[in-house]
Each structure stands twice: as C-alpha cells, then as structure tokens.
Design brief:
This protein has eleven helices and three strands. It is mainly alpha-helical. It folds into two domains: 84 residues; 77 residues, no CATH class. The chain has a three-stranded antiparallel sheet with strand order 1-3-2, with no helix packed on it. A hairpin with a 2-residue loop joins strand 2 and strand 3. The longest helix has 20 residues. It is rod-shaped, with a radius of gyration of 38 Å.
C-alpha cells in the first residue's frame, strides 16, 4: 500500500480535461473531481507504477459507480488500456516517490520558518549580525588607549553616545557636562562600560554618581 493520501492540484476543477469529462458524463466539474479522486486513490493503492493488470474499463466504471467514466478518462489521456489499465504519468502525483518529493517541498519553508527569529533574520544571518555587533562594540571600546588624551577621549565619548542612539548635538552637550563635573579618567571608565547599554545617559550618571566631582574634597573613608 503506497499510503493514505494522494496529491491533487488546487485548480483541477478548471482543467479542460475535467470540463471534457463533465460534458461527456453530463455532470458538473466538482462531481468529476470527486470521481477522479476515488479513481486515483484506488490506483495509488493497487496499481503498480500506474499499471493495473487485468483490470477493465467496465470494472472501473462499476467501482466508481458511473457508466462511461473510464472511457471519458481515456478520451482525455488520463487513462490507457494496455494489458489492463494504465494511468499515464503516474509518478508525477502518485506513488511513494511523488509523495516524498511533495513532503520535501512542504518541509523546506517550514524549516526556513523555524530558523527565522522574531526580527525576520534567518538563524545564520542573525548569528552573523550578532557577531558583527559584538565586534563593533569591541572596536568602540578600543577606540582610544587607556590613557588617551583629551581629544581622543572626546571623540570616543561622542562615538559611544551616538552609537547608543543620541543625536550628535545631544551627545556632545551631555559629554561636555560630564567632563566639566567629573575627572576624565572616571568619565572614560564609565564610557567604556556603557558600550552596548540601553538608556546610556541614565547608565552613565548612575556609574558616576559615587565618583568625586571636580572641586570636591576627597571623601574620607570612615571605618565602622
């Protein structure tokens, strides 16, 4: 037994061959599609490579329940008489090989869907995107040397802030206020840790809130 399903085209009702069979039998096309389904299901189970030896047109009519149906199939080229009955091009839609091809075709878009994340990127594309983002962040972190001068620090800070979504004017103004209030080393350390963080302004202010501001006396550590 080949299987418990067969493959049929969605536009079969409009096929000229179906229209011809419907005219010959004086029934509507939807009825013909149902008769064909029954005939092809039988062939799928019992015809070997589309050949049902010793089976006659009259038997097929009796099985389908409509006299002249088998001959109508012959007239449109969907059935032939040759030591029994033959279903031409049987392997296109019936049999194990056709079903495997059909299943493989259906599997491909499902596999693509499973490998696609919520951003619409395939898994491989998403992984490449993540890798590029991590590399970019690392490059930003290494944009200035640990003890870089003021100009390098300024450029680095503007880069970090604009990369996190701030407009350049806002980034420059905010960075200027940080450098006025805090030591350059503290600002640099905070900027390095802020790469890739959300709400970067709030993050930086949170990191720097415990740092000594310029002009403040050094805080005394009191042992408890």
């Amino acid at each position: 037994m080949a299987g418990d399903w067969i493959k049929m085209r969605v536009d079969l009702t409009d096929d000229p061959a179906v229209i011809s069979i419907a005219d010959a039998l004086q029934v509507n096309e939807t009825h013909v599609v149902g008769l064909l389904h029954k005939a092809w299901c039988w062939a799928d189970r019992h015809a070997e490579n589309g050949h049902a030896k010793s089976v006659t047109l009259s038997w097929l009519d009796r099985h389908i329940g409509v006299t002249g149906f088998a001959q109508a199939m012959v007239s449109v080229g969907w059935l032939a008489v040759d030591d029994g009955l033959k279903f031409p091009h049987f392997d296109r839609h019936n049999g194990e090989s056709a079903k495997k091809r059909s299943a493989a075709t259906e599997r491909k878009p499902l596999e693509r869907h499973r490998h696609t994340n919520v951003t619409g990127l395939s898994r491989s594309s998403h992984n490449k995107s993540v890798t590029r983002e991590e590399k970019r962040r690392e490059e930003v972190k290494q944009a200035i040397p640990p003890n870089g001068g003021s100009s390098e620090l300024w450029d680095f800070g503007v880069t970090v802030l604009t990369e996190q979504g701030l407009k350049e004017g806002t980034a420059r103004s905010f960075l200027g206020s940080l450098l006025r209030d805090y030591e350059a080393g503290d600002v640099e350390g905070a900027l390095r840790s802020a790469v890739g963080k959300a709400e970067v302004k709030s993050y930086l202010l949170g990191v720097l809130k415990d740092k000594r501001k310029k002009g403040e006396p050094e805080r005394l550590k009191v042992a408890l």
